[in-house]
């Protein structure tokens, strides 16, 4: 399915690239910072210098490691050995955090102060040495793979939509800090939901992908929720609305509703044309989400995705029927009237492009566990980038070329 969507010319971005190194190291560094406040000044000064050196080294190597993991996720098999090396380094950082936490947890200024200081210092020096060993290998891998970091804004990005989405995300951050409960991010999106199933041909060598409409009118919303283990955690809610111009028997039909965590989205596809779904009558944007329901925890990292529990969800802009159809039963009226009343009090949008950017930015905050205002430009560029070389981009026009064509038009008009 990934290959089919890529060949269709859709923009694509992989979300299963979590900044595990920087997250794990931040906890360890904070633990060391707390520890140095409890020890004599001379020892504290020495450990502070080591801690700052460690923090700098990890910050430098984290961006390179994230890039290696991204390139490997795109199918670069030559980075397999380096990827294993980065996994080992992450495990060592995790062990470092556990060891430092154990030392600080059992720290007693009268009984084991000297031993604790020596142990912390040794662990920091060992980890620094390990990072110094890894850096040349990482540099060599990046050089031979041809991968590079970029801070430039990708060409296909709409600055207006990006600013609008970032405004929603930052406002949601502020509101969540105030309320500390489930808070909706951005507007409710009125969309049409499609799901996919595949029919194999007789030779079973090719798959014919068929999309079917699951919800004529789906109300899509993104929510941030409190979490015991994570500062940034989001889930997506998709609820069917019977206020869609179709007949619904409320006695037999139930409103369908879907929920899944944002970290279960492993890939996103976006196209400006409904032809991606082979829906010729639709010429509006389409968003396709690859959801891995097999992922049970956001902490599952570098293990790839399953093939047995993948769900493909496609969303197109909801197109209201031109003919106003009246429901044949009062029950059906009641079923969707309450939903319509709820929407009157909520901001509603049908912009697929805005939803795409909201998902990209909230996924970034969820994976990196920091505000989008704090992430590095390279990391932000990774989440805004289009990784599909076959994507269809808008034609670029040269000013002189357009001017020349206009002059020709004027000349034809004069001669006639």
UniProtKB/TrEMBL annotation:
Record region (Disordered): 321-344
GO CC field: cytoplasm; nucleus
Transmembrane segments: none
GO molecular function (one): GTPase regulator activity
Domain of life per record: Eukaryota
Biased composition (Acidic residues): 321-334
Name of the protein described by the UniProt record: LALA0S09e06568g1_1
Organism name: Lachancea lanzarotensis
Lineage of origin: Eukaryota, Fungi, Dikarya, Ascomycota, Saccharomycotina
